[in-house]
Design brief:
alpha+beta, single chain
C-alpha cells in the first residue's frame, strides 16, 4: 500500500515508490489526489467522468467510431437514422475520450445534429424536406423495381409513412 504525504517542499516517500499520477490539492487539511479520470466536486466527493480501464475505453472509442460511421451512412440512406447514432457516438466518446467528444461536437457536419437535439431546437425545414423526399424516392424505387412480394411492398410503404409522420412531428428549426 502506497501512502504519500505532502511536504512543503515536495513529495516524500521511499525511493522505490513514485508519485501518483494527476495533481494534488489541499482541502480542509487533507490532501486530495485527483487522477485524470476524476473530477473534484464542490462537496468534496469525487465523480468519475471517464472510464478508467484502458480496455473499456478502447472498446468505447471503437463503438463510438462505429456509431459515427453508421450516422454518416444515415445521412445518405433514408431508413437509417443519423441523429440517434451520433448521440450514441457522443455518449461513447464522453465516457472514453475527451478529444473525440469535442471533435464530434465541434464537427461542421455532425456537431449541429447533436447540439440541436440537446438544446431541443428542432430540425431545419430544408433538412426535413430533403429527408422526406429522399425517403420516398428510394422507397418508391424499391417498391417498383426491386421488391416483388406484395407484403414487403406494403411494409415498405407503411415504414415510409411512419417515418414521414415522425419527421413532420419534429419541431422545425427557425433560423
Amino acid at each position: 500500500m502506497n501512502i504519500f504525504l505532502r511536504a512543503p517542499h515536495g513529495w516524500r516517500g521511499k525511493s522505490a515508490v513514485s508519485k501518483p499520477r494527476g495533481h494534488c490539492a489541499k482541502m480542509n487539511n487533507r490532501v486530495i489526489v485527483k487522477n485524470k479520470d476524476q473530477e473534484q466536486r464542490g462537496d468534496g466527493s469525487n465523480q468519475i467522468n471517464k472510464t478508467s480501464s484502458r480496455l473499456i475505453r478502447g472498446l468505447l472509442i471503437i463503438a463510438g467510431t462505429l456509431f459515427v460511421g453508421l450516422g454518416v451512412l444515415g445521412i445518405f440512406i433514408p431508413l437509417l437514422p443519423t441523429t440517434p447514432f451520433l448521440l450514441l457516438a457522443a455518449a461513447c466518446y464522453a465516457k472514453s475520450s475527451e478529444r473525440f467528444y469535442h471533435w464530434l461536437l465541434n464537427n461542421k457536419w455532425f456537431g449541429n445534429y447533436i447540439k440541436n437535439y440537446r438544446e431541443k431546437k428542432g430540425v431545419p425545414l430544408k433538412v426535413k424536406l430533403s429527408s422526406i423526399s429522399l425517403l420516398w424516392i428510394t422507397i418508391l424505387f424499391s417498391v417498383v423495381f426491386i421488391v416483388d412480394i406484395l407484403l414487403f411492398r406494403i411494409i415498405l410503404i407503411l415504414i415510409a409513412a411512419g417515418v414521414t409522420i415522425h419527421i413532420l412531428y419534429i419541431r422545425t428549426l427557425r433560423r
